[in-house]
Amino acid sequence: MGISNFLELSLNEKIKNLFVHGTFVIDIRYYGYKVNLYLLANHYFEVFYNHKLDKIEKIEPLNYESSRMKFYADQIQIPVSYVLKSEN
Prior knowledge:
The protein is an alpha+beta fold. It has 4 helices and 4 strands.
């Protein structure tokens, strides 16, 4: 499944796909969210979990220009090829 097909799925279908076929990488705390980073088909996705509401609110492709990158960079090494791929 390509990234564009994945993005067209409902939130529940995205969740199922990531949990079944993806690989959990790391989680961070970001404001009111616990953000889980997953790798699926060579693409990173962020899963935004609101612990106060006990629900996943959104799933987005990793934005390599986001301020959240500094939290990931402290803990994991994202290959340069992924960063370069996102810039094209």
